[in-house]
Amino acid sequence: MRNRCEFLGFNLSTEELDQVYHGFIALADCKKGVLDVEITDLVGRVATFNAKAAAE
Fold first, then answer.
1. Which of 29, 33, 36, 54 is deepest in the core (most CB within 10 A)?
2. Domains of the chain, residue spans
3. pTM metric for this prediction
4. Cα–Cα distance, 37 to 31 (Å, whole number)
5. pLDDT at residue 10 above 90?
């Protein structure tokens, strides 16, 4: 997962990577494959969630 995120241009912390991984697994359980655009969306959601949490 880390390699794929880095290939897509994302440098994630261990915590962020863990959050993306859990989302990836949940998505992969529902379908056969996960597209790069879906991984990008997961990274964006994690970043948004973490930014909101940090602002509180």
1. 36
2. 2-55
3. 0.88
4. 15
5. yes
CA dihedral (55, 43, 7, 2) in degrees, to 10, reads 90
Tokens 């959601």 sit at which residue?
Answer: 45
Mention every residue, 6+ apart, whose C-beta is less than 8 A from residue 1: 17, 20, 21, 24
Phi then psi for 37, rounded to 5 degrees? -65, -30
Cα torsion through 37, 11, 51, 47, rounded to 10: 20
Question: What's the pLDDT tens digit per position in 25-47?
Answer: 999 999 989 999 999 999 999 99
